[in-house]
Amino acid sequence: MGSCTIVNTSRGKYVEETIVYIENMIKYFWIHLKVSFQEFVADFIKDESGNWWLINVKAFVLDQYPFPIITKSITNYGECIPELLNI
């Protein structure tokens, strides 16, 4: 109780501090998936050290994307790769 402050904003100091992180995510999606956004909404928290942490992506509206959307795996977790299994 009393250990946090909730701020809901769409402009101002908090947006200016976190927009850098959102821009990096958007660049990543464009480079790797060729997806761009009209809107992108995310939640962040700021810790005691002043570091911002992404909590979740609340909503987005796609602007441009190829059909079908090209997906890439970022890990091999849960994937069966025959070459690795010598099949």
Helix content: 25-40%
Unreliable stretches (pLDDT < 50, length at least 5) are none
Structural class: alpha+beta
Count of helices? 2
Main sheet specs: 2 strands, antiparallel
Rg is: 18 Å
Count of individual domains: 1
Characterise this structure:
This protein has 87 residues and is an alpha+beta fold. It has one domain (13-85). It has helices at 13-33, 82-85; strands spanning 36-46, 52-64. A two-stranded antiparallel ribbon has the order 1-2. A hairpin with a 5-residue loop joins strand 1 and strand 2 (52-64). It is elongated.
Give the arrangement of secondary structure elements.
Blueprint: H1 13-33, E1 36-46, E2 52-64, H2 82-85
Antiparallel strand pairs: 1-2
Compose a concise summary of this entry.
The chain is α+β, with helices and mostly antiparallel strands and 87 residues long.
Jot down its keywords.
alpha+beta; 29% helix
